[in-house]
Amino acid sequence: MVLRRSQLFVPGNNEHMIRKAALELKPDSVIIDLEDAVPIDGKESARKLIRELLPQLDWKGKELCVRVNDPKTPFFYADIDTVYKIDVVKCIVIPKAEFDLSFVYKATGREIEPLIETARGLLRVEDVIRSEGVTAVSYGAADFALSVGGVVKTYEQSQVLKTLVVSAARAYGVDPIDKVFFDIKDIEGFRKECVEAKSMGFIGKQVIHPSQIPVANEVFSPSEEEINWARRVVEAYEKAVREGRGAISLEGQLVDYVHYKLAKRILDFANQTDS
């Protein structure tokens, strides 16, 4: 199980920030960005930097990813070739995903995290997620709003968009990760969005500033209250099963197999965060 409570985007052309992400910060994943963070005339120098720098650093158990450029751009294949040659990179983040991406996994052997950022991508989200090698998925509100001619704020708050992404992810057993929160000064707003995302089934949050990392890690980790509830449910349900019962009342609430599975998931996740 790979923890993805927090995924930090880091510009692929900024050596200082890359070093800091590796050596000082504590996100579960680091996404080195070759797309939006790097201007067109800086793409090749950014590739050269990460080829040389990433293998030198101790990533301390963090999942190291690279966001490549849009597959429809001339930069995509050069990015893929670069990532293929960097052994420490475990995952490729693909923006504006709209079709089967299995060819990327077959060519590189790296896990894939597509970003749903266009109208066509949302309509084809199942095809995208079912691609070989996909282990996580996220989405981008700003790019999606641009794609449909809408307003960014509307799609930042869209329950429909979030529900479609998280449902498709859960249907095919991949990690749903919530989008970035742009206002880096509004930590309470960020926390609120994390709590909402967790309640909808997302397992983590993409972040763009170090101050957001500890909040995401905290919110997407099981609370003591959740862990204690899960332990009581597991103990009571397993006892009931040994006695030949399939559903019980615990503290005035019905507990059946669904609640048992939810409780087991919480405990499994809690054990992972403690390890």
Describe the structure.
47% of the residues lie in helices and 16% in strands. It is globular and about 65 Å long. Strands 1-2-3-4-5-6-7-8 form an 8-stranded parallel barrel, surrounded by 4 helices. The chain is built from 13 helices and 10 strands. It is an alpha/beta fold and 275 residues long. The protein folds into 2 domains: 214 residues, Phosphoenolpyruvate-binding domains (TIM Barrel), CATH 3.20.20.60; 51 residues, no CATH class. The model has no long low-confidence stretch (mean pLDDT 93). Helix 1 links the parallel strand 1 and strand 2. The longest helix has 19 residues. Helix 12 crosses helix 13. Pfam families: HpcH_HpaI. One of its GO terms (biological process) is oxaloacetate metabolic process. GO terms for molecular function: lyase activity; magnesium ion binding. Its cofactor is Mg(2+). InterPro entries: Aldolase/citrate-lyase_domain, Citrate_lyase_beta/mcl1/mcl2, Pyrv/PenolPyrv_kinase-like_dom, Pyrv_kinase-like_dom_sf.
